[in-house]
Amino acid sequence: AISVGLCAGAEFGTDFAEQVLPRNTCALIKSFVGFKLAGVCPFIEASDLVIGETTCDGKTKAYELLNEYKPTFVLEVPNMKNEADARLWRSEVSRLVSKVEEITGKAITADSLRNAVEIVNAKREALLRLNRLRSADPAPISGRDGLLINQVQFYDDPIRFTQKINE
Length: 167
Hints:
Helix content is 57%, strand content 5%.
């Protein structure tokens, strides 16, 4: 599977979102729902599954709505840190593993997870090094270019992206 971020951050989908969501819904939620309803986010359009979480009532409702347009899997995020919540979270992660394995036809193993963690950690380290460069005077990379690079990380192949940042 390839993980990508949902498109959001622009207000042009707001009119579409407000046709199905309350007007007082936060801008982030209206943005990602609007992108889907307007059909302008290629990542949502090309995806097999959207994975969401219950971090707020608005997102919970938005993912319920999004499921009418795109298969959506919602993780119940515990609100506290006691043993019952830890069991709930382990159960939710287990459900997600089963769903990803079903869609991809590939087993998620300890080795594959270890490899994925190493890839993501290398990407984070490369981004950290790049952002540290910005403290130089003059900065060798503009804030705008830094922002663009940070946005691209959500969509680019993580191994290729890390190699190019390190270059």
